[in-house]
Amino acid sequence: MGASRDYNLVRQTLGRALHLCFRPRYRGQESVPPDGPVIIAANHLSHIDPAFIMTATSREVSYLSKQEHFEGRLRGALFGRMGVIPVDRDGDASDALGAAEAVLRDGGAVGIFPEGTRSRDGQPGRGRTGAARLAAATGAAVVPVAIRETDRVIPVGKRVPRLWRRFYYEFGEPLYFTAEEANRAALREFTDEIMDAITALSEEAGDYWHSRRLRTRMAEWQERNGLVRARLRESLDERAQALRARLGR
Q1: Nearest to 134 by CA among 114, 163, 156
Q2: CA 229 to centroid of chain Cα atoms
Q3: Angle 5-21/73-81 helices, nearest 10 degrees?
Q4: How many helices (H) and strands (E) does the chain have?
Q5: pLDDT tens, the chain, 249 aa long
Q6: Is 43 helix (H, G, I), strand (E, B) or coil?
Q7: What is the CATH number of domain 5-211?
Q8: First vs last C-alpha separation in the chain
């Protein structure tokens, strides 16, 4: 199921703008199946989280988002063109889940934040069972995604982003709902499996990028140290040549 022209246009335009202003780092995007129903389930730290998942994969991802985000003519029109699915968090979410299920049954991709809201402490929290219900109903793959440090870009309660901050997205291997019956216990167990995978990916991403920063800094130090040594050798060689020249007289 290919991405629509409107979606591709917004993704490309938004992607260029976002990558000029921020410094996202991705790993594992190839884990997202190129076709067939898929649920991208991520922890949630900031309003910008969906935008960078959207620009990281070629799939057209229909995100579930609270209906308050549709307020305003321009934003409502943009969200509608992007296939965003409104969720009434104070009422019945069955309409939103029904719309998401229809996307999946058509072979599409749905993005969901199982926690239902942004984390206040930066750590993945307890997930709700919506993603598990969709996976059980449609057989869709669930790709867990760990997001780190986007809360440093737009913290909870803030509206103005902090530009040129680095943050991280770690995509994991697909998970599948395999229980024979989609009862409450099975849905809870699969939801916990998704959140455990996100937590493990978050820790893995932290270790990987921290070690990479250390390696980069070490390489920079070695390069600077090498330049200093080269300049020192050059200076010593020049002095030795000058001394030999004086002695040769």
Answers
A1: 114
A2: 42
A3: 110
A4: 6, 7
A5: 555 777 888 888 888 888 888 888 899 999 999 999 999 999 999 988 998 898 889 899 999 988 887 777 777 777 877 888 988 877 778 899 999 999 999 999 999 999 988 888 888 889 999 999 999 999 999 999 999 988 888 877 777 888 888 889 999 999 999 998 999 999 999 999 999 999 999 998 888 777 765 555 555 656 666 666 777 777 777 777 777 777 765
A6: coil
A7: 3.40.1130.10
A8: 85
Residues in the chain: 249
User: How far, in Å, CA of 21 to CA of 16, rounded?
Assistant: 9
Long-range Cβ pairs for the range 164-167 (8 Å, 24+)? 164/21, 164/22, 164/23, 165/22, 165/23, 166/23, 166/24, 166/25, 167/22, 167/23, 167/24, 167/25, 167/52
Angle at the Cα of 18 from the Cα atoms of 58 and 199, rounded to 5 degrees: 65
Strand 38-42, strand 85-87: pairing: unpaired
Q: Tokens 């699969």 sit at which residue?
A: 190
Domain ranges of the chain: 5-211
How far apart are the C-alpha atoms of 243 and 214, rounded to whole Å? 43
**Rounded to an integer, what distance in angstroms lies between the CA atom of residue 134 and that of residue 211?**
37
Q: Which residue spans within 77-187 are E strands per DSSP? A: 85-87, 109-112, 141-148, 166-171
Tell whether the torsion through CA atoms of 75, 79, 81 and 87 is positive or negative: negative
- The residues near 239 (Cβ < 8 Å, ≥ 6 apart) are none
